Automatic annotation (TrEMBL):
The chain crosses the membrane at residues 40-58, 70-88, 135-155, 200-223, 288-310, 322-340, 385-405, 411-428. It is found in: Membrane. InterPro entries: Ion_channel_UNC-93, MFS_trans_sf, UNC-93_regulatory. This is Protein unc-93 homolog A. Gene3D superfamilies: MFS general substrate transporter like domains. Pfam families: UNC-93. Keywords: Glycoprotein, Membrane, Transmembrane, Transmembrane helix. GO terms for cellular component: membrane. It is a multi-pass membrane protein.
Length: 465
């Protein structure tokens, strides 16, 4: 029998898998599908700008009042609204729904991270294990299931758009403009990014709306309300509003969080480069928009498998070794992309880069999330809100300069942030090695454990983490 906490991790993971099957597929296509006047990239910029704003105050307020479960459901509803906006994409539909998605995005992710951290600590206490090991394991399982959403979402888009009979043949003159050798700003106006038939677009977006609603149903029905009593107690004994409102900013007094900002922002830079620049300037330019889904499926499969692998491997290798592997992989890819001239005859190469990028991203995602949970166990909501805020700032900056900076300079910027991360992250890791952060006392989750005991009719020994 699997434990109750492990069951909840699986429910959260499957819910996010369903939700991001829709959102991930739409995000990969925005720079190509809604290329007119940069509308697609602009909508992504608005999403992450809204996430920054919501990260400043919404996560602690929503999580403490609603609890993690219902915060996740509310955040998912915001994501579904963006899929609805893509039925009739235009400035008056995409931008408002992008803002709504962004406002719900930070509470959604902060609630998920808080939920996994609580579950990991409770399970570690129950089994007498080290809290950080169980948290790492749970985040690895989550990202293993969650990152496979890139496979299913992009498979749907590729199969549906593959039915289009108006797939253009790419002339040699256009191939000369692909990759970093050319500026890459005019790719959006050539024939390969012509929108597929409107009927196919509606079919795809309709499927995405359906799986988004399914995600909300899965969480609402099957997820345990693990912090219900804590939320009820908070509502009954409210802290001053300004205290909760400023929780995200108060944590910035901790020098460890400030030192982790380059690492967190790099996560946004590297993800936005693959979904916004690689798909447009390499894949769409040289192969056509119908290949975007297949290439991003490769990224998702690699990301998913490596998330599971590195989540289990971290207890043996430590975080630092994995971060080093990710940095080397990204560094190598960036240098290669600066010199590679994409051509349809090199089809396999188009899949090598997302496979390596997916491996690296698996490390950035699993280990950075786990690191925040380990460093700030008593301020989880504010810590993960900061994570989303700084990661989203990386997205906003990257999508913001997407329409006017040449591709070569974009690669140099990603490389510079990576090198800065390689300088700042080891400082925090060394300090944590010398002065380990004590895990949260098990008594914090005593109410939940007592509920679990009643439900399972078994006694759980009170083992200190």
């Amino acid at each position: 029998m699997i434990s109750r906490n492990f069951k909840n991790v699986l429910v959260v993971s499957v819910g996010f898998l369903s939700l991001f099957t829709a959102y991930g597929g739409l995000q990969s296509l925005q720079s190509s599908l809604n290329a007119e006047q940069g509308m697609g990239v602009a909508s992504l910029s608005v999403i992450y700008a809204s996430i920054i704003i919501s990260s400043m105050f919404l996560p602690p307020i929503m999580i403490k009042n609603l609890g993690c479960k219902w915060t996740i459901v509310a955040g998912m509803a915001c994501y579904v609204s963006y899929s609805v906006g893509n039925l009739y994409p235009g400035w008056y539909t995409l931008i408002p729904t992008s803002a709504i998605l962004g406002l719900g995005g930070s509470p959604l992710w902060s609630a998920k991270c808080t939920y996994l951290t609580i579950s990991g600590n409770v399970q570690a206490a129950k089994e007498g294990k080290k809290g950080s090991d169980v948290i790492n394991h749970y985040f690895g399982i989550f990202f293993f299931i969650f990152q496979s959403s890139a496979v299913w979402g992009n498979l749907m888009s590729s199969l549906i758009f593959g039915q289009d009979t108006n797939i253009a043949i790419i002339p040699d003159e256009q191939l000369q403009t692909c990759g970093a050798a050319d500026c890459g700003l005019n790719v959006s106006v050539n024939g390969t990014t012509t929108r597929p038939a409107q009927k196919l677009v509606w079919t795809l977006v309709g499927c995405y709306i359906g799986v988004g609603l399914l995600a909300m149903l899965i969480i609402a029905v099957f997820l345990d309300n693990i912090d219900q009593e804590q939320a009820s107690e908070f509502r009954g004994n409210r802290e001053p509003f300004c205290h909760t409102f400023l929780a995200t900013f108060r944590l910035l007094k901790d020098w460890r969080l400030l030192t982790l900002i380059p690492l967190t922002m790099y996560s946004g830079f590297e993800q936005s480069f693959l979904s916004g620049e690689y798909t447009k300037n390499y894949v769409t330019c040289a192969l056509g928009i119908h290949y975007v889904g297949f290439v991003m499926m490769c990224f998702g499969a690699s990301n998913s498998l490596c998330s599971f692998l590195f989540g289990r491997l971290a207890r043996y290798t430590g975080r630092a070794a994995l971060f080093l592997l990710a940095a080397v992989a990204n560094f190598s890819c960036i240098i290669a992309l600066l010199f590679w001239k994409p051509h349809p005859d090199q089809l396999a190469v188009f899949f090598v880069f997302p496979a390596l990028w997916g491996m690296a991203d698996a490390i950035w995602q699993t280990q950075t999330n786990a690191l925040y949970g380990i460093l700030f166990p008593r301020d989880k909501e504010a810590a993960f809100a900061n994570y989303r805020m700084w990661e989203s700032l990386g997205f906003v900056i990257a999508f913001g300069y997407s329409t006017f900076l040449c591709l070569e300079y974009k690669l140099y910027i990603v490389l510079a942030v990576l090198l800065l991360t390689a300088i700042t992250y080891p400082i925090v890791e060394y300090h944590e090695y010398k002065n380990p952060t004590p895990p949260v006392n098990e008594g914090t989750y005593l109410n939940h454990k007592e509920t679990t005991e009643r439900d399972e009719n078994k006694i759980i020994c009170q083992t200190r983490i």
